[in-house]
Amino acid sequence: MYVGAKIYSLNGALIKTVVKVEDKTAINVSDLLSGVYILKINNESQGIKLIKK
User: Fold this and answer.
1) How far apart are CA 25 and CA 23, in angstroms?
2) What confidence tens digit (pLDDT) does each residue in 19-43 have?
3) Gyration radius from the chain CA atoms
4) What is the rounded distance in angstroms from the CA atom of residue 40 to the CA atom of residue 45?
5) What is the DSSP string of the chain?
């Protein structure tokens, strides 16, 4: 199954879009600065907090 994922900053700005992600696939966030982000999968209204160290 393929899904889409989007990473947003805490102020709601879209930072990164991953078009096709398979189940149990890692999303590369090495290009993100340290901080807190929101990960949304398939445009779900509820996001997952993502902390990049």
Assistant:
1) 6
2) 876 667 778 899 999 999 999 988 7
3) 11
4) 8
5) -EEEEEEEETTS-EEEEEEEEETTPPPP-TTSPSEEEEEEETT-SS-EEEEE-
Tell me what pLDDT residue 11 has: 96
d(CA 46, CA 35): 19
Under 8 Å CB-to-CB from 53, ≥6 apart: which residues? Answer: 34
Residue whose entry in the numeric block shows the structure tokens 């900053």: 9
Please name the amino acid found at residue 36.
V
The contacts of residue 36 (CB under 8 Å, 6+ apart) are: 10, 49, 50, 51, 52
- How high is the mean pLDDT of the chain? 87
Chain position carrying tokens 């902390």: 51
